[in-house]
Amino acid sequence: MSIKAKTAVATGDGKFIIDTVTVAEPKADEVLVKIKAAGLCHTDYDSLTWGKPIVMGHEGAGVVETVGAAVKDFAEGDQVILNWATPCMHCFQCQEGNQHICENNSPVVAGGNGHTPGHAHLEGTQWQGKAIERSFNLGTLSEYALVKVSALVKVSEENLNFSAAAIVSCGVMTGYGSVVNAAELVAGSTSVVLGCGGVGLNAINACAISGAHRIIAIDINPNKLELAKQFGATDIILADKDDIGLNKAAKEVEKLLGGRLADYAFECTAIPALGAAPLAMVRNAGTAVQVSGIEEEITIDMRLFEWDKIYMNPLYGKCRPQIDFPKLMGLYKKGDLLLDQMITKEYKLDQLEAAFADMLKGKNAKGVVVFD
Prior knowledge:
single chain, alpha/beta, 2 domains
């Protein structure tokens, strides 16, 4: 039996509408999830320009409604976090432990803006009488989402804050994982985080959890720098918009650290002109991490690599969902991972336009759409 679901639909022409879609029963390896909360990030806004109708949303948490015949590890009523980087567990990269860059299912690696073999059967969601894709194989800005079982991670916590759980599966994982999984930050080290939006704040939080001795936050927005202190920044630098490549800020970092640059630097601005900036922040043999996912041509002065510096461009914090999500939820329960503090405002689905406006104006560290 199909279900009618109130949904945010990107119409393919730069706009979206709140409309009703029809969601089918899950096939053998699929699960129908009642969405309780969906995080918002710039990728959701970008999906308006993908040139095709799509069910929006790629961060979410909810409760299992129905499972397919072959699903053994999930049952009706289970609390789950939805994960867009669904691993196939059979390709070369999955076998190497790189589940986040699955060669078959990843909507980033395999392409298609969300339609890969990791996508539940396409006809399972219908809009205006036609099958419609779901953003990043999920489509969480909807009352119900039909997904592959590989997209789910179970959460057993009582009285779960679904808003907090919903944001784990993109910005939190990206910021935290870039520090812990990719850079493998060593306790007692020094770090710099460029950009104090949602991803940057999670990188700062991860540096603090990992035991960094000094955590220097850099941004052009003084309000974001104040927020960075709450997430663990020990020092802040208010950057100048005219500081090309943040070279002046790098000199301030060197001064703060007693004449030597940082051990690690994390670029979280998504500004192409700052793609090489973390290299200017780290000492010889330091590690620079391009966290924000810049995907265009930039020019880099190769002298920034002198000497022995490492430059990394990890995807999604090298996420292994079944391993990393329980760790993150454990850190949240302990009080170390500041998910509640990350959520600036909650919205209803009908308020999505206002939520996007707040996000684009930089008002929110993180906005979340909540469902009844």
